[in-house]
Amino acid sequence: MSERPDRFGVDEIAERAEKAFAEAADLEVLEEARVRFIGRKGEITTLLRSIGSLPDEERPAFGDLVNDLRERILGLYERRKGALSDGAAEEDYFSGDPTLPGRRALSGGRHVLHQVLRDIKRIFFGMGYSLAEGPDVELDYYNFEALNFPADHPSRDTQDTFYINRDILLRTQTSPVQVRYMEKHKPPLRIIVPGRVYRNEAPDPSHASEFLQMEGLYVDRNVSLADLRNDVTYFVRAFFGSDAKVRFRPHFFPFTEPSAEADMSCFACRGSGCPICGKTGWIEIMGAGMVHPHVFRNAGYDPDAYTGFAFGLGLDRIAMLKYGIDDIRRLLSNDLRFLRQFWAETAGEVFE
Ligand code: DAH
User: Fold this and answer.
1) How many angstroms is it from 216 CA to the middle of ligand 1?
2) Is the pLDDT of residue 296 over 50?
3) Which residues, including other chains, have CB under 8 Å from residue 181's CB and lie 6 or more apart?
4) CB-based contacts of 327, cutoff 8 Å, min separation 6
5) pLDDT at 1 exceeding the cut of 50
6) Which of 175, 248, 291, 315 to mutate to test ligand 1, by most ligand atoms within 8 A of the CB atom?
7) CA pair distance 215, 142, nearest whole angstrom
8) Residue 351 domain-assigned?
């Protein structure tokens, strides 16, 4: 190609462009030079227009030539622009006002659910609980059978289960870890069990098909409902504020007897009734009860020697209540605009 005589002065134009770019001392002058060569009314466009005066057979080659030239000039321009911009930034830096605040590097933060879990763990560790965990992919036996949900019993329908096969499922609750833990440990024991659980729910602002629960279990001789009430109340006051009240309503769970749901007084209206608490003054926060003798037997404990209480709460729900989050799905959305709102609380924290 380079052997060919430069009939249209292409190389000459490129040389002039390179020179003009090199001489441009700032971005403004450079921009003027760019417009002169490759702008809409620049030299290259004018050159292309002259195609009409060429014989037909020369036109394609000419078009290619001019397009190559355009690319070349664009490349030269970009290179010069890069050099000038770097220089400009450097100049700004040295001539800048040193008293201006610096630019802060973007840093991440702890997810709001992890903040909530961390705070809850601290409260329960302070009461002598320790941490236990269990598998997300669980046996039907631990998720239902050992927890006194009989096979084909309607109580199973309350938890829309993702089955992997007849015996294996995604756990619908953290309660199976109660039995797994008791099988391996002798009483007395006090554990909390946070973990992800799964249910085949149609997603809406208060339902997601995966969410976090936390189980609590305390087993010893002579554990009573009064102990349950004490620990739950302590937790609620430590987490939501010392003026919170707690009440228990009778309920049914197959693995506890008696069973209850615990409510706390609405933190928004302090009990007088508002939209957050559905005008009742109370907000449901957990299920709880005294461990059912069948569950103790299934785990190899003697129900005549030991008693215990259990409770289970939804961590997403607790986070939503505490921070006024209106849709559970936001917690899994990874939307930085949402997540960032909670980072201030963990700024500078060292992550373990
Ligand atoms: N596992 C129950 C659920 O997912 C919650 C629950 C209720 C856990 C009562 C407990 C309990 O340990 O005692 O709905």
Assistant:
1) 9
2) yes
3) 132, 134, 189, 191, 193, 217
4) 205
5) no
6) 175
7) 14
8) no
